[in-house]
Amino acid sequence: MCGNTIHLANEGSVDVKRITTMAMIAGWFDLNSNKITAYQVSRGQQLLTNMLRQGDSFEIDLKSHLIPVGIDIPKDSAGGMTVYGFVVAYRRAADMKPFVMFLPFSVSKDTKTRATDIFMPLFPSFGSAEAGPANTSYSLVLEEAREELITLYKDKVAQIVVK
């Protein structure tokens, strides 16, 4: 993930078919309770690409295509942050076995103008907060936000059947 772009690459030995969005989870992570206090799940299948051959890659622009519009999340700039979980399904071309990826990230406004969205992965990624010093209070908050998103994914989205 770099900025608002997720870069998906097929680094395996088999082609991948039918890469499809399945859902986007949006939530408000309250920094006082370390819980997601409000959320919305947007389900819907959207084909991103029909084939991703070995060694190929493509990018997904989250800002212009995938973040749900009109999410009613309580926003207190000092008391929480907006977190998202992006669910993508794909099939291994050799046997059409389905797989699912869950990609958690956060979005906040820059501190100076409050106009620009800053995207940050909540998964290990080059240049992410995960690459910084471990066991800082901020890295622990990010881990708790990721765990909350994973719980929402398991409770509200994981039952999606890939057909």
Defining key terms:
single chain, about 160 residues, alpha+beta, five-stranded antiparallel beta sheet, two-stranded antiparallel sheet, 2 helices, about 15% helix, about 45% strand, globular
Distance between the termini: 27 Å
Structural class: alpha+beta
- The oligomerization state is single chain
Per DSSP E runs of 2 or more residues, the count of β-strands stands at 7
What amount of the residues lies in strands?
A: 35-45%
Q: What helical percentage do the residues reach?
A: 10-25%
Mean pLDDT: 80
- Name the strands of the widest sheet in spatial order: 3-2-5-6-7
Number of helices: 2
Give, in order, the helices and strands: EEEEHEEEH
Largest sheet: 5 strands, antiparallel
Report the radius of gyration as a whole number of Å: 16 Å
Structure in words:
By secondary structure, this protein is an alpha+beta fold. The protein has one domain (5-157). It is built from two helices and seven strands; from the N terminus they run ββββαβββα. It has helices at residues 62-65, 137-157, and strands at 5-9, 16-30, 35-52, 57-61, 80-92, 98-109, 117-121. The strands form two sheets. It has a five-stranded antiparallel sheet, covered by helices on one side. β5 (80-92) and β6 form a beta hairpin. The longest helix is centred in the last third of the chain and has 21 residues, at 137-157. Residues 128-133 have low confidence and may be disordered.
